[in-house]
Amino acid sequence: MKMKKVISSLLIASALTFSATTVFASTGSSLFSSEGCIACHTINGQGGSVGPDLSHVGSKRSLSWIKTQITNPSAHFAAGSSVTINGQSYTAIMPAHKHMSASKLNALANYLESLK
Questions:
Q1: Which of 10, 29, 56, 70 has the greatest CB tally within 10 Å of its CB?
Q2: pTM of the predicted model, to two decimals?
Q3: Residue 72 C-alpha from the chain's centroid
Q4: Would you put residue 113 in left (φ > 0), alpha (ψ -120 to 50) or beta?
Q5: 2-114, superfamily in CATH?
Q6: Where are the domains of the chain?
Q7: Residues 68, 104, 25, 19, Cα dihedral to 10°
Q8: How confident is the model at residue 25 (pLDDT cuts 50, 70, 90)?
Q9: How many CB atoms lie within 10 A of CB 93?
C-alpha cells in the first residue's frame, strides 16, 4: 500500500513539474517577444543579431546567472565593453530590466534556462 502512495506521489510531482515547465516556456517565449528581447537576440533563427544567439543559453548559463543578466547585465559585462561569445564579438549594450515583476522575471529566465 505504501509503495502505491509513493508511486502516485511521484507521478503527481512529475505532472506538476511538467505543467510548470510548459507554462514557463509558453509565457517566457511570449515575454521574450513582448519585452523586446527578440529585437536584439535570436532563438532558433528568429530575432535580431545585435546580441548573442540564445538558442542554447540554458546549456551554458545557470538560472541565477540568467536572472542577473536580465536585471543587471553590467554585473557580468561592463556597459560598452567588447564581449566575445562563441567566437563572435558584441558590444555590451543590454538594458537593465530592474523593474520587471518577479513573475515575469521568473517566467522569462526559466524559459531561457530551458533552452538547451
A1: 70
A2: 0.77
A3: 14
A4: alpha
A5: Cytochrome c-like domain (1.10.760.10)
A6: 2-114
A7: 120
A8: low
A9: 14
